[in-house]
């Protein structure tokens, strides 16, 4: 059956089985068990290289993409980022510690978050974090204090909100004036916090950060954000003589989850952003700043697929059908959180006519435990079939939980036709080993 797959690393083999990164998903499910996260290591590396090449061709020396590791934080992805020369951003002491355990040098890490605790800040400074992306005055005070204790001047970017509506999911739109993140330019508070940061003896203010949202497809969102931020750089140069060295434009380029989603050409988008920044910098009378961006989803999303085993297949004539699986919102809560859409298949019956329209639902005792709705599967779908959900590399493993005391799946990396375990499957003992 000819099919236009949402990701280019998906196919069908001679046996009519779904393939991912060239490997038979039915065979992988049999070898490793389900639920199972698959990650295409070659695709992760390819996506990182696209960003690295585009940055080298379009932005000043010292600019770099940072992998937004909240999208999928585990030891091996940090090792891959290090090997590919990719910076990282982290949002918790847990992500910092994972990167450290993987051997990633924290000097090239940026620490985000709207409410870092005193312990988080001290831990990061103690372990040599490169940059803080600071969200508020209270945080600046603690960074200044802890940097003084450590005898250093800590590099900081200030997170500002440019006031942009990205037309994405409301819950992941972060660029508006009233966002919980950052300090608004429109209200005059951004100017105040810049002046405040410059008074801190143990802080080296290196520039500004903004982040407008996630899963962004709109044509000019990053260009619009860049224009606002460059004008602010020029304004602060005029007001207090401070010129930002770095401008971090955040992340958020969208990926294809279903056939109706658009396709983002990252290289072309980076080129467009660079043209906007160059023109705006000249108009504002400031140097072209070193540019940082934070791709996360667009690095790992299409490198992921999740495999399940079907259990009950419930047919309600004239109403609705359900295919239940051995995972669900514990390994992928995105439908429950955002109503996110996915492309799903019966991995072992790809050549059969798909006349069973059903919801793919999880095993948890929640009516909202749904992976996807109104999916066409093979009419013969039955207990024991391998079910595949595409584009699950971002915000699936990283958002997984043990709700209903369900153990989290293993993660298997696929590379050059081979496979290996990057994260072992949780056991029942793992579920109780913190209990006293």
Q: Could you describe the 3D structure shown?
A:
The protein is of the alpha/beta class. The protein has 12 helices and 21 strands. The chain has helices spanning 25-32, 41-58, 75-83, 93-101, 118-126, 137-150, 189-198, 221-240, 266-284, 297-300, 334-338, 428-432, and strands spanning 10-12, 18-20, 23-24, 36-40, 64-68, 87-90, 109-111, 131-134, 154-161, 183-184, 203-209, 246-248, 290-293, 304-316, 320-325, 344-346, 356-361, 370-377, 386-390, 410-415, 418-423. The strands form 3 sheets. Strands 4, 14, 15, 16, 17, 18, 19, 20 and 21 form a 9-stranded mixed β-sheet that branches. Strands 5-6-7-8-9-11-12-13 form an 8-stranded parallel beta barrel, surrounded by 6 helices. Strand 2 and strand 3 (23-24) form a beta hairpin. Helix 2 packs parallel to helix 9 and helix 5 runs parallel beside helix 6 (137-150). The longest helix has 20 residues, at 221-240. The chain is globular, with a radius of gyration of 23 Å. The N and C termini lie far apart (54 Å).
